[in-house]
Amino acid sequence: MSPVSGSGRLVLAAAPIGQPRDASPRLVEALGAADVVVTDDIAWLRGLASALDAPPAGRVVDTDEPVRPLAEAVRDGATVLVVTTDGIPGAAAVGLVAACAAEGAPVTCVPGPSAVTAALAVSGLPSDRFCFEDAPPTEPEERGRWFAALAGEQRTVVFCADPSTLGETLAEAAAVWGADRPAAVCRDLTGPGEDVRRGGLAELAEWAAGGVTGPVSVVVAGAEPSDLTGDDVDALVAEVERRVAGGARLKQAVAEVAETSVGTGKKALYDAVLAARRA
User: Fold this and answer.
1) Which helix (H) or strand (E) holds 118?
2) In this structure, how many other beta carbons lie within 10 angstroms of the beta carbon of residue 38?
3) Given 69, 123, 179, 213, which residue has the most CB atoms within 10 angstroms?
4) Does some domain include residue 181?
5) What 3-state class would DSSP assign to 239?
6) Helix orientation angle between 266-278 and 250-260, rounded to the nearest 10 degrees
7) Is the pTM of this model over 0.85?
8) Domain limits for position 94
9) Is 3 exposed, middle or buried (CB count within 10 Å of its CB: 0-12, 13-18, 19+)?
10) Which of these, 159, 165, 161, 162, lies nearest to 209 by C-alpha position?
11) Are 27 and 96 in the same domain?
């Protein structure tokens, strides 16, 4: 849809992730100008606004508010501001951004702090390629599938975690991704309780066994190209054996399958085939 006329717009504003004084002057201005402020934690927002001496001029609503009326309000000329505890609004604003775009309404942002990039920066892990995965599912079976799906991810992985069950989460990550996989647990970044712990996943799981406090971001190094796990091994070994049965030499079959499977090392696959034959 082509842009609508009028002065309405949706504004995604970054909020401090620890220290209120990290807020930008533009956030203060936006709070005083918006017709509606959308947040995932109304009590937190009011506390932030008080610390900034910037009371919201408009009404404050929760992110559970239906997006259609908000998008229509933007279309009709209202300024709707989204401010969340994540730093820069992300998942909480996806539906609203899409609805405003469908209405042809302008969407802009007030840049600033981000828990994801802050954790990545202090982790000491590679930051040239990374992915953010929000939080693992709470249901055990779904959580297991979540970890398994990321087992071969070669980019650095950043995700949020429940501090009360952090030990369990890290132990499960260690079991699937490897006990020695380098990681960092970042707690209360920029806040008074800021703490960054680095080590292998199993070591960090043991440290966090009793639970921790504060907002938590976990940063985990990506898988090495030679890492093969679970169903990946079975499927790739079966494909190698199929090609061997068709007349290919073992090393040739291994090389061909490794080349077509992103992140698979030839040596790791060759060793897996030999191990399967011995089993």
Assistant:
1) helix 115-123
2) 28
3) 123
4) yes
5) helix
6) 130
7) no
8) 9-113
9) exposed
10) 165
11) yes
